[in-house]
Amino acid sequence: MGVGAISATLTHPDYNLLILMYDNESYANTDIQLSGSTPWGAHTTFSPPGKVKRIMHHRWKKNMAGMMAAGHPTCRYVATMCMSYALQGMNAIRKALSIGGPTFIHSLDPCPKGWDYDPYQSHEMGELAVNTGVWPLYEVEDGVLKLTGRTQQIAAGKIRRLPVRDYLLRQGRFAHFTNDDIDYFQSKVDEMWNKWLVPGVIPFRKEVEADNPPA
Predict the structure, then answer these.
(1) Which string of DSSP letters, residue by residue, matches 42-97?
(2) Whole-angstrom distance, CA of residue 146 vs CA of residue 103
(3) Fewest beta carbons within 10 Å, which of 7, 64, 94, 108?
């Protein structure tokens, strides 16, 4: 919802503004309904697991920040953030507000009700999203892309990316997952990190690699 208006705004270089998108991965204001930002397989009021069909939601999460960065060359600054890493988040907001022109930030915001966990765990839930690689942190400033914070450290091999199991099983919305479901989710995150041109940002591969997959 609202993608058309956001896109139109980001095409106007004379606008001096920041669009900050808070993402709790559902339409939470109307009782946790499925949205384009809902992760694969998550339990929402529109995708309840059942005995006949356990996985009701088969789409992968929409890559909003990547879409905005790739499709709007006049947008001076695009970033992702999670306030579990408050310094990185504040720096992104400061840069977006000071650089001038249209800017866009996509913020992941854990939701105790929608994700079904104890509110005291919200800070840790955001950390797990980043450290499992599910939510990469990056910025695109005047067309130059840079991984930031923990994501940069993971990509550089300085810290180990955690298994997604550590993140998924802490949330009731994934309580219906089997080991096969968790393995599939892990494979999609691994693919993003190992095969995408830039993990979490650009889902393309070089032509040679795409046409000649390893045996």
Answers:
(1) ---TTS---SS-S----PPPP-HHHHHHHH-TT--EEEEE-TTSHHHHHHHHHHHH
(2) 16
(3) 94
Q: Which domain holds residue 47?
A: 3-199
Q: Write out pLDDT tens, residues 152-195.
A: 999 999 999 999 999 999 999 999 999 999 999 999 999 999 88
Residue 127 has pLDDT above 90, yes or no: yes
Question: What is d(CA 133, CA 151) in angstroms, rounded to the nearest whole number?
Answer: 7
The confidence band for 91, taking pLDDT boundaries of 50, 70 and 90, is very high
pLDDT of the residue at 155: 93
DSSP code of residue 29: G
Position 167 in a domain: yes
Check: CB of residue 109 under 8 Å from CB of residue 19.
no
